[in-house]
Amino acid sequence: MAFNIEPCHISILECVLFTTIQPCEEVKENSREKFNPDWEFKKLEAFNLFEEGFETAMFDDSSWETVSLPHTANMDH
């Protein structure tokens, strides 16, 4: 005996998604968020690109240059 349960799975999935979606905050049409300040930059040699620890909060980036966006690595430092 073969059962076709595929439509049932879709209905359950749709119900779960519909009931768990949280309403978003109203976004103002002209609202903008600044993300330009407080970026840190340090040009590295290719062999240093995979140095460990960049992703940690304790990483010492005090020797890095503070830049704002847009920024290019081609600039003389």
Features:
77 residues; two-stranded antiparallel ribbon; alpha+beta; single chain
Detailed description of the structure:
The chain is α+β, with helices and mostly antiparallel strands. It has a domain at 35-77. Helices cover 19% and strands 8% of the residues. The chain has one helix at residues 6-20, and strands at 39-41, 65-67. Strands 1-2 form a two-stranded antiparallel sheet. The longest helix has 15 residues, at 6-20. It is extended and about 50 Å long.
Helical proportion, percent range:
10-25%
**Strand and helix order:** HEE
Cα distance spanning the termini: 74 Å
Main beta sheet: 2 strands, antiparallel
- Number of helical regions: 1
Shape: extended
Mean pLDDT: 67
* Share of β-strand residues: 5-15%
Oligomer: single chain
Q: Count of DSSP E strands?
A: 2
The structure class reads alpha+beta
Topology:
Blueprint: H1 6-20, E1 39-41, E2 65-67
Antiparallel strand pairs: 1-2
Describe the structure concisely for a colleague.
The chain is built from one helix and two strands; from the N terminus they run H-E-E. It has 77 residues and is an alpha+beta fold. The chain has a domain at 35-77.
